[in-house]
Amino acid sequence: MPLSTADRLDITELIARHGHLVDAGEFDRIGEVFAEDVVHDLTDFGLGTVTGLGLFRDAESAPGVVHPVGHHVTNTVLTALDDDHVQARSKGIGVQADGTTGSVVYDDVVERRAVGWRITRRRVLARRAPLTA
């Protein structure tokens, strides 16, 4: 059940597309990245879990929410779970308008659907402190 090169490229591009859509404010296109029934776990930020695209769009575009000016994703590692499910783990870097940055880990489950690959579960984990010896 190894992933094909085409599937690896499609999934990596899917994960990268999130930042482009959010940074451009194109929340109406978020279904190009996430499944309709996505579970978006933001518990590490004290925001609980958001289920479904409607709730996700509302949370992303809510007044008073301060978004980074840039969402950047890197170091994506893919592990096939079966022919239609992949575990994806990526590093995320958020750049704020004042130049400060933050780091997260995206822990995703990606599923092959009729419309193509979609993220069905995303857990976002904040990296708040460096590792120490």
Walk me through what this model shows.
With 133 residues, the chain is an alpha+beta fold. It has a single domain (5-127), classed as Nuclear Transport Factor 2, Chain: A (Roll), CATH 3.10.450. Helices cover 21% and strands 45% of the residues. It is built from two helices and six strands, in the order H-E-E-H-E-E-E-E. It has helices at 5-23, 53-61, and strands at residues 34-41, 49-51, 70-82, 85-95, 101-113, 116-127. Strands 2-1-6-5-4-3 form a six-stranded mixed beta sheet. Strand 3 (70-82) and strand 4 (85-95) form a beta hairpin. The chain starts with a helix and ends in a 6-residue tail after the last strand. The mean pLDDT is 90.
Helix-strand pattern, N to C? HEEHEEEE
Broad structural category:
alpha+beta
Rg, Å, rounded = 15 Å
Specify the biggest β-sheet.
6 strands, mixed
Which parts are unreliable, with pLDDT below 50 for 5 consecutive residues or more? none
Overall shape: it is globular
Q: First CA to last CA: what distance? A: 38 Å
Give the DSSP E fraction (strand runs of 2 or more residues): over 45%
Strand order of the largest sheet: 2-1-6-5-4-3
Overall structural domain count = 1
State the name of the first-level CATH class.
Alpha Beta
Percent helix range: 10-25%
What's the architecture in CATH terms?
Roll
The CATH topology annotation reads as Nuclear Transport Factor 2, Chain: A
Instruction: Tell me the number of helical segments per DSSP (H or I, 4 or more residues long).
Output: 2
Overall pLDDT metric: 90
**Could you give the count of β-strands?**
6
